């Protein structure tokens, strides 16, 4: 089902945008997603849970758990974040870029879920399926899948923050999925602090993905959509 959702999402993204598509990359590199615009593979959110930023850094060398990966540059994090936001099936409900307070490269976006029981249908659901998450929590009225990825800037540590909500009831309250890239520096203590709520962003360069032609991908997407409809 995950593969079918990814194929269906790829078809929708082709119709919506000629730019980036975010796809699951597990068939090439385990636990990763691929940004087709930058041709970079990113480790899934949650893969470095409970490891400090310093712990992850120590595992990047030969023989380490994350050998082959590297810390991303700030411009790569910005590009990835913008591509996540704009890789939905349609445009998000709200996007604010480069706000006056936080400066260039920041982004805030949200997309609404339907106010129904198990409402989980924002424009980013296939994106969330591809990128993983850090922690799942159950609350009163909604549940959340939260992703938080730390990255290094010249001034310290910053973070990408994503929250995927699942509405639990038709109660007149709409819950919005969120994506935020905030370039402000968070506490330096995060260098030596690790828990299940956050992970360290890692990236690797790849050869161009060996994907089907656009026509073949379009056909695969149609098949996926048909099968998804039949499954409902």
Give structural notes.
- This protein is an alpha+beta fold and 232 residues long.
- It has one domain.
- Helix content is 25%, strand content 26%.
- The chain has 5 helices and 11 strands.
- Strands 4, 5, 6, 7, 8, 9 and 10 form a 7-stranded mixed beta sheet that branches.
- A hairpin with a 4-residue loop joins β2 and β3.
- α1 packs across α4 and α1 crosses α5.
- The longest helix is centred in the last third of the chain and has 18 residues.
- The radius of gyration is 18 Å and the shape is globular.
- The termini are close together.
What layout of secondary structure does this protein have?
Layout (H helix, E strand, L loop, with lengths): L1 H15 L5 E3 L7 E4 L4 E4 L9 H6 L15 H12 L8 E4 L9 E6 L12 H7 L3 E4 L3 E12 L2 E12 L8 E7 L16 E2 L2 E3 L8 H18 L1
Parallel strand pairs: 7-10
Antiparallel strand pairs: 1-2, 2-3, 3-11, 4-5, 5-9, 6-7, 7-8, 8-9
């Amino acid at each position: 089902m995950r593969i079918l959702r990814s194929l269906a999402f790829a078809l929708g993204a082709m119709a919506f945008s000629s730019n980036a598509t975010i796809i699951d990359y597990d068939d090439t590199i385990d636990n990763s997603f691929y940004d087709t615009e930058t041709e970079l593979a990113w480790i899934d959110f949650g893969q470095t849970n409970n490891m400090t930023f310093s712990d992850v850094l120590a595992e990047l060398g030969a023989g380490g758990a994350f050998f082959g990966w590297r810390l991303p540059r700030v411009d790569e994090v910005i590009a990835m974040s913008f591509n996540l936001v704009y890789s939905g099936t349609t445009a998000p409900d709200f996007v604010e870029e480069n706000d006056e307070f936080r400066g260039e490269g920041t982004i805030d976006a949200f997309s609404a879920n339907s106010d129904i029981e198990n409402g989980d249908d924002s424009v980013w659901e296939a994106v969330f399926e591809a990128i993983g998450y850090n922690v799942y929590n159950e609350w009163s009225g909604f549940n959340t899948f939260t992703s938080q990825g730390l990255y290094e800037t010249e001034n310290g540590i910053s973070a990408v923050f994503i929250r995927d909500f699942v509405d639990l009831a038709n109660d007149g309250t709409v819950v919005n999925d969120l994506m935020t890239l905030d370039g402000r520096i968070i506490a330096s203590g995060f260098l030596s602090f690790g828990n299940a709520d956050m992970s360290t962003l890692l990236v690797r360069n790849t050869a161009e993905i060996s994907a089907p032609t656009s026509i073949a991908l379009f056909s695969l997407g149609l098949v996926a959509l048909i099968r998804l409809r039949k499954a409902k």
